[in-house]
């Protein structure tokens, strides 16, 4: 296994945070030759890392001291470094993380009364160039590893001191006292980093660790059609589709990937390839842009497009950023648009902008990483 080769050549360079249990087992068998004991050590490590937030082997008191010393010499349990933290007037917190290669990504914590969401990134930059999205103006640098994806969650748990709250609570439900949902709606297109995102989701959903249910993790995609079915079947978490237009001509401009997988291909795939479970719906994201996609005709056309497909439509007032050519639709126009959708009996909440004053709202994220060779 490649991890073992790296372990021999580059001691202290393997970060085991974000590795799957099979990868951990492969490493631990170098130190514990008996299969049962090696499996037990993996369970112990998993619990210390994902239930207690421990980053030092010295504190893993139920593991033999000599083994801890050996592990400390060749492995790390490291998180991304918080380079900057900004807190909005509405309580939204934006983190700027610096990665090992000095790339920068942003992650946003959004507290609400009944739920709180962590919005995480899957890439440094983005390759899709959606014209209304600030992140789209930053070219793709590279994909994130599962270690870096999971590391965002762990680093925020550290910062919010969640581990102490988990350990001091008696009920399992209080595990999500602060973070109840995770959404891949930060920087990047998660389905263009499929394998690492899948690996990260499996770790986040593991019931012996962080234990997020599949219904509390959402992958947002601009419409990478071949990967949507795979994600639904292999990962099983919720899917949100960035729709934003009801005609190909408009969507080609707003979401250029539409030129490869147009509305017909996208919606046909959702109808034919995604087997929704009981009470599940496909969530569609629809940014409201003044004079671009917000007419009553657009609303009626949207209803017709989604006919027969169990759907939920999140209407997102456009969040402005310097240099953008777009403006937010008026409140009256958003209401009129929503009224048409509601009459068709489709749920259509209007998303309240959060963190606008710190550029943390939907479509505003961007970091300052330089462009390297892209790896999709």
Concise overview:
The chain is of the alpha/beta class.
Throw out a few tags for this protein.
alpha/beta; two-stranded parallel sheet; 16% strand; 376 residues; TIM Barrel; DNA polymerase, domain 1
Structural account:
The chain is an alpha/beta fold. The protein has two domains: 2-76, DNA polymerase, domain 1 (Orthogonal Bundle), CATH 1.10.150; 81-358, TIM Barrel (Alpha-Beta Barrel). It has helices at residues 2-9, 21-28, 35-50, 65-74, 146-159, 162-168, 194-205, 225-235, 248-254, 263-273, 296-305, 331-343, and strands spanning 14-15, 75-76, 81-87, 93-98, 104-111, 116-119, 123-124, 142-143, 181-184, 217-221, 238-242, 282-288, 311-317. A nine-stranded mixed β-sheet has the order 3-4-5-6-9-10-11-12-13, with helices on one face. The protein has a two-stranded parallel sheet with strand order 1-2. It has a two-stranded antiparallel sheet with strand order 7-8. Strand 10 (217-221), helix 8 and strand 11 (238-242) form a beta-alpha-beta unit. Helix 2 packs across helix 3, helix 5 (146-159) packs across helix 7 and helix 11 (296-305) packs parallel to helix 12. The longest helix has 16 residues, at 35-50. It starts with a helix and ends in a 33-residue tail after the last helix. The model is unreliable at 5-9, 169-176 and 370-376 (pLDDT under 50).
